[in-house]
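Morning. Coffee machine broken again, so started the prediction first thing and wrote up yesterday's gels while waiting. Chain of 100 residues, entered below exactly as on the submission form.
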Amino acid sequence: MSVSEKGVCSICDEVFNDSDLTEIDDLFLCAKDLEIYKNNEWEAIKSTTVSDSNMKDALILQDMKDEFKKQGKPSYIKSTYNQSDTGEIITISDLYITKG
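Came back before lunch.
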């Protein structure tokens, strides 16, 4: 089994070698976006809960992030994972954008 040596920047969504990404606050960032992340205040503007039975809200967040990218506004999606009483994995995703 091979392990990928590539990763995706949480802000620009571009693929980089793992060695070119920095992990901070559970995000992986390229050098340019690391500075953007550290030099800005961020606010969550939309939150959604996604499960195996409801995936469409995750697509809505990604579409919003893609639209912000087209507008030149940095954003990222941060997710946390929980397990329901029935064993289903529940993903809580928040879309963050720079304040101002």
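The mean pLDDT is 91. Going to sketch it on the whiteboard this afternoon.
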